User: Fold this.
Amino acid sequence: MERKKIILFLLLTLLAGSIIYRVQHPFEQKRVSRLNYGNSKASPLARADQTPRGKDGRRVSGGASLSDIKLFLDPVKHSGVVIRDPFFEKEIQVKHAAPSPVPTPTSSTQRPKPVEDPVQKVKRELSQFRVFGSFESNGETVLFMERGRDILVVRKGDWIDGRFQLKDISSHSISIWASEIGEDVHIALDE
Assistant:
């Protein structure tokens, strides 16, 4: 602990010494009579006379020119119209077109689509599935089913698409309960 106090005291003394030195010896930029790396051929006195002078005869510093002051006194007028707002989407403008003519009834009446038999619909949807493997562990069988590019891993009791429940899995067939028709559908795995 003593060592840390000594180091702190030395650092504070060094800081105080550097502050006192800087106050007593302020930094001043040196002035030169001639630039070493300029390509100006005029003498230093001629260059000094070319600096702009104000109305009272004093030299004007190079910080601001008369054009800057004019812009300050007479600012350019800007409109408050937002040309493009990047934070909000554009409002979709709907063009109102002329109303389309009402179709006239033709002599041939449109027939409603025939209602598909629910059993045939369930069979068609289940025919999209293909069982390509199974796995048995601890007396439980897991099926690997494929539908298009989707791979499904199902066990007894799992629901498929919320409409089909896998009721029973045997070595040669599976039994699926279809909620749309309310009955079991048996599918042979040998096919």
Notes: The first helix runs from residue 2 to 24. The CA atoms of residues 6 and 12 lie 10 Å apart.
